[in-house]
Amino acid sequence: MSLLVLGANSLIAQAAAAHFAEAGHEIIFGGRKQDEPEKYANDFSIRYKTKCRAEYIDALDYPSHKKFIEDVLAKTPDLEYVLIVFGYLGTQEKAQSDFTEARRIIDTNFTGVVSVCELLAAEFESVKKGNIAVISSVAGDRGRQSNYMYGSAKGGLTVYLSGLRNRLFKSGVNVLTIKPGFVNTPMTYGMPLPKPLVASPEKVGKDIYKAMIKRKSVIYTPFFWRWIMLIITSVPEFMFKKLKL
Length: 245
Ligand SMILES: NC(=O)c1ccc[n+]([C@@H]2O[C@H](COP(=O)([O-])OP(=O)(O)OC[C@H]3O[C@@H](n4cnc5c(N)ncnc54)[C@H](OP(=O)(O)O)[C@@H]3O)[C@@H](O)[C@H]2O)c1
Fold this sequence. Notes:
The chain has helices at 11-22, 36-48, 65-75, 92-97, 99-127, 148-168, 201-213, 225-234, 237-240, and strands spanning 2-6, 26-31, 52-56, 79-84, 131-135, 174-180, 182-183, 198-199, 218-221.
């Protein structure tokens, strides 16, 4: 069987893909940089002795997505797993005064993912099998002043995935929503985060692999974020709006 991973340059994507490669799956690395996906495909095929290749996709180039998916499926008719990792944190402050930044955040985290998911959904629905896993975020569970542009895009994504899961269930297609907390990747580099709450990409990648194989619906990774977010979402709005978060 095969895994298509979109956003191949992410350390989380590579960590999850490593488990699939170890289990003997073919890996298709999709990314927007010409050389990076190729590099990972070569590295993985040597390291894990499994079939790997690179494909090029830009999350924001919507008109190209149909051909991209058609090409992938033509070359890999047994495609079973897709992991979508595209994401852009951006700068909240800049997004408040510059709509180009706001739009890039919304489009990379939401619109681009939806565009790809709808194409995959139609295909998997017709063959009545498949697994679509998408990285959302705990930031989508409640808006905060420090990152509500990113958080709202992820929140929209979480709701979209819930609807997609509901639509595809009867066709035997699984949709997994992945909600990581803080992860030590270039996205969080230099941020003053509480160390005990920061997970490694390897830990998150392993949780993603296990959840995809077990066809789970929603996971928090690491697991304790489920309880942290339960507390955060329980704070009444009249109190929450006064907090500096
Ligand atoms: N790190 C965290 O604490 C954390 C927490 C919760 C959720 N997440 C989510 O986890 C996912 C992975 O993030 P990460 O932490 O590994 O950060 P990252 O290293 O910045 O990874 C983001 C990935 O998205 C790709 N990407 C961005 N814009 C794209 C576009 N227009 N077209 C194609 N690919 C694009 C990047 O490719 P390039 O390298 O080419 O830019 C990169 O592969 C994201 O969805 C992020 O929102 C991260």
